[in-house]
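hey can u check if this looks right to u? its 244 residues, i copy pasted from the old doc so theres a chance i mangled smth
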Amino acid sequence: MTRLAHAWRAIEPEQRLAALTALGLFASMFLPWYSKTNTLVVHGVPKATATSLSAFQAFSFVEAAVLLVSAGVLTMLFARAEQRAFQLPGGDGLIVMIAGGWCALLIFYRLLDKPSLQSSERITATVGVEWGIFLALLFALGLTYAGTRMRALERPEPPLRRARRQSPGHTRQARARRDEAAAPAPFGLADDETAVIAAEQIRARKPAPTAGRTERERYPPAPARSSPASEGEQLSFEDPPPGN
């Protein structure tokens, strides 16, 4: 009962309508669908006895189809409530709509063509319909309407994807990396000592510098300083003093 209550709360209002109509269609099969009148002639005097028959008491192809449709719709909605992954051609709404229309068509056919019951030479059986079959027809039409509501409001389902199988070597490497990342620090070391060890490990993993590689010269080079002798030899563009 707990699973049923949880499933009822998990489904949408349109799915609840479909569940109620499918359950009503199943329950209507216990109601009187047919009336059977047996006429017996005793000493030249006819005597008639009338009995009511449910769908299970006059079980045929029509009643079996109605039973399968109601059970199938309820099973599908229960699986959807438990979020089981499966896809139906056209979606759930289309399947429910077709199932309800099929039941309505079969029940209407049974209204026109009553089931044939056994009779003998002395007993004549006459079959009619009763109110239960009309109620079943109403529930079948309600199931069709619920299917149209579900089809109008449902979203397309994502495609089912199969999980990729990984090779054993890849699985072992991934597990080793996960265990290494989740491994605790060595016992007795403080946080700063752990950081120093991690830095040394990172430094050890770096490649060594290539032999013969010199340090790059600075650019541009510093200007050269001039000597005092060269400063005196500089030319002057001033006029020489008079008298020279």
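The mean pLDDT is 75.
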